[in-house]
User: Which sequence fits this backbone?
């Protein structure tokens, strides 16, 4: 354990709710962490960004214990994903860097953005089929890091500020969603060019994006409370309004069964959408102001970070 690791805190899953064949559990993290993104790892542990404390946290769901690793001066980590190397990869807006954390040694490696992209406001990352990490910055940039060489490239987004969620399709194509720019875009992974695709109508506010097993893209429409699907083959959009009053769709994730999961800020719930039956199932939080900003999962589990309650939440399905 390095001196940067905050002492482990016991935080058992104090509350469990059942909803049909699904079970919802909650795990507390250190007070004031305000976890932003979450990433379940292949070894059973779950990583999260403690954005307000400049740290990367890890939860052991078997014991409920957490520990946190300080990422450096001025750190403000936003996103975290697990790479092909099983390491935790973090988009750190405070350090303006992509940060790799070794899961065994907790060793930190930073990939600083070029000087002419000094205030990217880094958001989210994804790995392409060749093991290159791609990232977004809300202040109008997107870029890539080659973990093998450390080379980092960045480009200005075609409509300026707004790049937010980013995802890779099964074919290896990389797409991002631009909230303020009101579009999604496919990145040419060789040249770095971004080809924009407008939403089904103006003003929906695409926030995050994910691909299903067929390469259909699912997008959370923040401004209109909808989930949209875009098929790159047919170039056709579809959209469905989330249940409840005035929904605000933030996160989106597609599980191994091609069910689409979203977080709804207004109605304080996780929402599962079945594209086959075109039906929704809601899983409301048992505390107010959950504010789940991102979702990720592994087989049988969908994880989110309740940034407003200092908890992680998981929905487990049999």
Assistant:
């Amino acid at each position: 354990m390095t001196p940067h690791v905050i002492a482990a805190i016991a935080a058992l899953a104090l509350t469990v709710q059942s909803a049909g064949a699904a079970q919802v559990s909650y795990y507390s993290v250190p007070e004031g962490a305000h976890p932003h993104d979450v990433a379940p790892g292949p070894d059973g542990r779950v990583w999260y960004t403690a954005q307000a404390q400049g740290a990367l946290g890890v939860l052991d769901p078997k014991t409920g214990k957490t520990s946190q690793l300080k990422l450096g001066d001025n750190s403000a980590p936003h996103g975290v994903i697990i790479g092909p190397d099983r390491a935790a990869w973090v988009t750190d807006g405070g350090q303006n860097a992509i940060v790799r954390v070794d899961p065994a040694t907790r060793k930190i490696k930073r990939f600083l953005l070029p000087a002419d992209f000094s205030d990217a406001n880094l958001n989210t990352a994804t790995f392409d089929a060749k093991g290159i990490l791609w990232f977004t910055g809300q202040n109008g940039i997107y870029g890539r890091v080659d973990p093998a060489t450390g080379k980092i490239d960045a480009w200005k987004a075609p409509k300026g500020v707004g790049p937010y969620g980013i995802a890779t399709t099964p074919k290896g194509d990389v797409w991002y969603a631009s909230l303020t720019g009101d579009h999604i875009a496919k990145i040419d992974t060789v040249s770095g060019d971004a080809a924009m695709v407008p939403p089904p109508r103006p003003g929906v506010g695409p926030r995050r994006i994910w691909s299903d097993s067929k390469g259909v893209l699912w997008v959370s429409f923040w401004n209109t409370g909808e989930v949209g699907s875009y098929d790159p083959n047919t170039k056709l959009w579809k959209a469905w309004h989330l249940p409840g009053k005035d929904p605000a769709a933030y996160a989106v994730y597609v599980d191994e069964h091609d069910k689409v999961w979203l977080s709804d800020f207004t109605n304080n719930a996780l929402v599962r959408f079945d594209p086959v039956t075109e039906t929704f199932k809601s899983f409301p939080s048992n505390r107010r102001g959950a504010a789940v900003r991102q979702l990720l999962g592994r087989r049988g589990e969908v994880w989110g970070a309740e940034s407003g309650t200092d908890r992680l939440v998981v929905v487990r399905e049999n």
